[in-house]
Amino acid sequence: MSGNAGGTSGTAEGVDVGAGVELGRVRQMWHLLEPLHAVLYYAPEAFDEAAALGYGTEERWPSYFPYRAAPLGAVGSERVTSAFYSFSPRMVAEHVESAWRTASPDEVLKARERAVDRAYRAIFGDRISSPELAQAAVLARRAAEAANTVGRPLAAANAELAWPEAPHLQLWHAATILREHRGDGHLAALLVAGLDPVESLVSFAAIGAASVERFESRGWTPEEWTAARQRLVGRGLLTEDGTATDAGRELRRQVEQHTDELAAAPWQALGPDAVAQLADLLGEFWVAVLGSGLLPSETTLGIGKV
């Protein structure tokens, strides 16, 4: 799966954020929706559509960056780096500087909708037209439309797009708005914690969220990683061998809790009963996506790791 900057994971059970919705439930909804969004970056149908536009498909990054950044428009690498946060600026520039010469953002948006349509049909089969999926789409859309996107560039860019007509595409679009809403909030939590892009990854690896090798996919050099580690050692957040100290674990716990709090409003608006209903409805589709084998077992998001 994909994400912003190493997070969020762990548990947040029993913390009430209002309207009867607990932080544990807020995080659960992210866990359920994230795989539904992430098929765009791994499904063979998505690579087919990207190749038809002219993007390379030998790895996922040539299509990942335009697919995810297209709602922002034909922006340059600096704005994408800012919004994506944890990626090396060099890596972003490598893929973004040429992205809009290959295809326009509008063409990319149409391609990603086709990709999701084809991928969902392949994964869900006849369940694509089930009343359960249709009802899940209704509830997810209500939550997404309740999301306040002020100060959240990726959530706002996706929320500004027209809603698709088909229920399964509405479900994906809602999942995308909600995950980017959460991701934008996560970056705010990292900034409050004083963790820069590299430090956010180093500190997350230090608590066992994923292997260092997995985080290397973000394009930072060994020298940059080591320098970030030393900065965190200097703050008392890591030991010399790169393991998180108690203070480091506590800071990451605060980041994840703050992220949950900032992601709670759409679920508060939906209400606890409807949230519980949506969680039940999403279960079979979540299982189908995971059972497809498309998504990697280890991701930089750390879901299920800590």
Descriptive labels:
mainly alpha
Structure description:
- The protein has a domain at 23-38 and 127-291.
- 63% of the residues lie in helices and 0% in strands.
- The protein contains 16 helices and no strands.
- The chain has helices spanning 23-38, 44-53, 61-69, 77-84, 89-96, 99-102, 105-124, 131-145, 153-159, 167-192, 197-206, 212-215, 222-234, 246-262, 265-270, 272-291.
- The two termini are 16 Å apart.
- The model is unreliable at 8-19 (pLDDT under 50).
Protein topology:
Blueprint: H1 23-38, H2 44-53, H3 61-69, H4 77-84, H5 89-96, H6 99-102, H7 105-124, H8 131-145, H9 153-159, H10 167-192, H11 197-206, H12 212-215, H13 222-234, H14 246-262, H15 265-270, H16 272-291
Helix pairs in contact: 1-10, 1-16, 2-7, 4-5, 8-10, 8-16, 9-10, 10-14, 11-13
Number of helical stretches of at least 4 residues: 16
How much of the sequence lies in strands comes to under 5%
Number of strands: 0
SSE string, helix = H, strand = E? HHHHHHHHHHHHHHHH
What general form does the structure show? globular
Question: Cα-atom Rg, whole angstroms?
Answer: 19 Å
Low-pLDDT segments: 8-19
Name the helicity range: 55-70%
Write a concise synopsis of the structure shown.
The protein is an all-alpha fold and 306 residues long. The protein is 63% helix and 0% strand.
